[in-house]
Amino acid sequence: MFQTLISFLQSVPFFHFTSFGILAMILVGSSWCLVGLVMGDAPKKGIDPALVQLCGGLFSVVIGSLIMVATHSYSSAPAAVTCWTLLTYFISGAVNFAMLQTMAAAMQRGPNGVVWGIIQSSLVFPFIVGVSVFGVALSGPRLAGIILLLLALIFFASAKNNAAKTPRSKGLNWKIIALIGMVLAATQQNLSTAPSYFESARGVSSIMRSIASAAGTLVAAIIFTLARLTPELKTKLLFGIKNPVLWKYIFALQTFSLLTSYLLLYPGIDVMADHGLGGMCYPMMIGSCIVAFTLLSAWLLKEKISRMQIAALVACVLGLAAICLPASVSFSTLFQRIVTIILTADWKIMSDCIKFASSSR
Q1: Contacts by residues 69-74 (CB-CB < 8 Å, ≥ 24 positions apart)
Q2: Phi and psi, residue 153, nearest 5°
Q3: Residue 295 burial (C-beta neighbours within 10 Å; 0-12, 13-18, 19+)
Q4: Are residues 215 and 291 located together in one domain of the fold?
Q5: CA distances for 4 relative to 73, 150, 203, 255, angstroms
Q6: 296 and 360 both lie in a single domain
């Protein structure tokens, strides 16, 4: 029945249009806020972040394999292509593990919203690779978008630590750790996007790609845990396994991750790459995620939004919008659209936003 539903959805023309790809990227990106919230909250609950990823990777591999067998979602690509594609996603999953560990460490030292913004500002690099390697068209507005996203990164890095009751920690500064996380995120994003540029690699099913990525995370988590295993860590791990909060994290993260990867993420990337827009996938996903997570940090974590952070968000949104414009759109057309938006804007909503920002300083 599940496979019949998937086959039906694949037969609908909408799921082959760029509009589906754009919608899928935005929905997946927004869902990633859950990952950031968990990785920031787990240490506060006495749960080792690596344990969350280890159990989560195991959960995804097992459940994903069952789904693959039940739906017969195997690879139709040649054996060699299947191997290198799955290896790419496996490495991507391992790098993603390292990135999330780095992010968790930075979030324990600095403001979660700003840390998330710095790391996810790596969204600009897959687009640059798409332009320089895979032939994604670089128009004037898209070039402006890249510049705006780089400015957003600078603004995020310049933001002060306004986190409520953030304890001082020894070791590297949280900004340095966040920048390391940004490099890892850029690497992971390029690895995840690259196979979709090749027609032959698209024969590897979405669920197989999801399993390979989860396996990379699982193996990296096991190696990382064994390498630093001490009596104290054993005690902490045993506490974490018995803690029901851990299993809530895993169920929420992995179930949602499998569904979005199988139904939205990889199909959406394939559609975008098929129309020569693969480099825009991560900018769209992470741009929407940055904005959503920053607002959630202010709402749930009670972190104050600084002026520099607001400037970073504005630059991020404008840069994202510019990158997502069709290559045929000129600066004059872009200017006309901006003027139209300003003239038709709901000034009451804008006023409320300004009041909120002012009260948050």
Answers
A1: 70/2, 70/3, 71/2, 71/3, 71/6, 71/207, 72/3, 73/3, 73/6, 73/205, 73/206, 73/207, 73/208, 74/205, 74/208
A2: -60, -45
A3: middle
A4: yes
A5: 12, 44, 18, 20
A6: no
Report how many domains make up the chain.
2
Three-state DSSP at 315 gives helix
Cα–Cα dist 260/267, whole Å: 10
Q: Give the Cβ contact number of residue 317 at 10 Å.
A: 16
Q: Domain of residue 340: give its range.
A: 330-361
pLDDT at 95 (0 to 100) = 95
Q: What is the pLDDT of residue 108?
A: 80
Q: What is the pLDDT of residues 57-116, one digit of tens each?
A: 898 899 889 988 888 888 888 899 999 999 999 999 999 999 988 988 888 887 777 787
Q: Is 72 left (phi over 0), alpha (psi -120 to 50) or beta?
A: left
Same-domain pairing of 308 and 351:
no
Domain assignment present for residue 57? The answer is: yes
More confident residue, 5 or 225: 225
